Amino acid sequence: MILDLFAGSGGWSQALTELGVRDVGLEWDEWACKTRAAAGQLTIRTDVAAYPLWPFLGKTTGLLASPPCQAWSMAGKRLGLLDQPLVHQAVADLAQGLDTREKLLAACRDERSLLAAEPMRYLHALNQHGQPEWVAMEEVPDVLPLWRQYAAILRTWGYSVWTGVLNAADYGVPQTRRRAILLASRTRTAEPPPPTHAKLAEPDSLFGPGRARWMSMAEALGWGATDRPVPTVCAGGGPGGGPEPFPSGARKTLSDARERGTWTPHPPINPAVTVADGRAEKAVHTEHPTAQAIPTAWRWTLRNNNQANATVRTIDEPAGTLFFGHRANECVWQAEPVNPTPPGTGSAPDPIRITAAEAGILQTFPADYPWQGNKGQIFSQVGNAVPPRLAAHLLAPHLGVSLSPDDFTLAA
Fold first, then answer.
1. Contact indicator for 9, 371 with CB cutoff of 8 Å
2. Which family is this sequence assigned to (predicted)?
3. Is the pLDDT assigned to residue 207 strictly greater than 80?
4. Among this protein's residues, is 234 annotated catalytic?
5. Contacts of 355 by beta carbon, 8 Å cutoff, 6+ apart
6. Which of 153, 208, 313, 325 is least buried, going by the fewest C-beta atoms within 10 A?
7. Domain segments of the chain: what residues?
8. What integer is the mean pLDDT of 152-174?
9. In the predicted model, what is the mean pLDDT of residues 105-109?
């Protein structure tokens, strides 16, 4: 089996599905488990730190782990950085079969910090049976020193290991999400997959195939046609029920802006872009107004939070890193003037909060992925997930699968 620790809503699992295999996920969150069940993914709802190891011994070929990142993420208080010496100590102890977690946990400033040491508990037990054959782990960039500690231990057990930080946009994800990655293998040289995309398109050469331009938000969402769909109202709870975490009526159409003649879609990125069967449009929008070709005064951008250092990107670029939790209300589409702004163009259209379906697509989940829970719960699942498209590129070599840029569809 392939064992997926902290499986979440199924980022690794969706990638494996695309590659023709399945995993068994261990996950605690109720709504993430319901999403996984709706997606047909095998799941054990449990605390990864408390689950016994014996069911997996002698049966596990691959181990996946994406420990919760809240203790380390820039979106939180980052107490995990203060707890880092304790986490390193836990990893060192667990690698020798010593369980000092209870004592170390009592000293942690954030109880979630020590979860980053849990994969070593599983790895130590599995190693006694010459398993797993391969390992893939993912976290926020600040966890890289911890992955290097894991790597040093795994090498003494006969693994080839690579650690580093990868940009998801380099693998066709419409988001410049940087993540610390560990790849290890008993049977092949561990190395990062070759990037398929670049900030600027690169043509084929004598040294190998070229790379496509980074996937833009417009392309991923199917907004590449001349008459591009406009972000519109998407009120009400998600498929699992519950209220939308925004004030009633906060999402409004842009018809008032079009009537004033002050808005036009950004020029098309690729007129050939289409949305398979229209499913992405149905998932993302409740109606599909189009804009006329009028003089441009405003262009749409996505702002990933309301802090001063927020990442703001135009729709013909990848999004910045999407993270939600208590910041779900802050990720908005907003209009920015095109310089110089023509006189008499009126005020900018109101900001529009991103929908959970849009966020899921920008994380490279299928447009019809069966998210469960209210919108706040879905946003949390999306923000915590490994982008399936990045995960597929990381896992394909371990599974002996060749993956081309065209093998993974976004809006499908």
1. yes
2. Belongs to the class I-like SAM-binding methyltransferase superfamily. C5-methyltransferase family.
3. no
4. no
5. 231, 234, 251, 284, 375
6. 208
7. 2-201+386-407
8. 98
9. 90
**Separation CA 72–CA 82 (nearest Å):** 9
The pair of three-digit structure tokens given for residue 269, joined into one six-digit string:
């990125």
For residue 287, count other CB atoms closer than 10 A to its CB.
12
Give me the sign of the Cα torsion angle 303, 307, 311, 314: positive
Give dist(CA 387, CA 24) in Å, integer: 18
Q: How far apart are CA 116 and CA 72, in angstroms?
A: 10
Question: CA separation (Å) from 93 to 87, 105, 114?
Answer: 10, 13, 12
- 340 prior amide bond cis, ω within 30: yes
User: What pTM value is reported for the model?
Assistant: 0.82
* Token pair in block for residue 292: 């006329």
pLDDT at res. 190: 97
- Token pair of 73 as six digits: 């993420």
Place of tokens 């990848």: 318
Cα end-to-end span (Å), the chain:
28
Q: What is the mean pLDDT of residues 318-334?
A: 80
Domain at 2-201+386-407: CATH code: 3.40.50.150
What does residue 323 show for φ and ψ, rounded to 5 degrees?
-140, 145
Average pLDDT along the chain: 80
- How far apart, in whole angstroms, are the C-alpha atoms of residue 49 and residue 42? 19
pLDDT, tens digit, 9 for 90 and up, residues 208-218: 778 999 999 99
d(Cα 329, Cα 105) in Å, to the nearest integer? 32
109 pLDDT band, cuts 50/70/90, is confident
Q: What span, in angstroms and rounded, lies between the C-alpha atoms of 31 and 91?
A: 29
Residue 206, burial from CB neighbour count under 10 angstroms (0-12, 13-18, 19+)? exposed
CA distance 22 to 5: 14
- How far is the CA of 324 from the CAs of 76, 81, 135, 288, in angstroms? 10, 20, 28, 26
